[in-house]
Design brief:
Blueprint: H1 6-16, H2 23-48
Amino acid sequence: MSRPKFDEVFIEMARLQGHKLNGQDKLIVRTRFASAQAAKERHRQRMSAEPYQWARKAPPR
C-alpha cells in the first residue's frame, strides 16, 4: 500500500472549496509538505537510533 500524497489531497480540497491555486501556490504547498515529511522522518530516525556514549581517549604514553 503506497502512502497518500497529502499535498495533492490538500490541493484538491482547495480546488473543491473554490480556491484557485496558481503554480507558485502549488509549489509552496508541495515544498511545505515535503519539508514536514522530511522533518518527521529525521525525528523518527533520531528516536530509534542507538544512544550515543562518548568515551574519553586514552592518554598518550
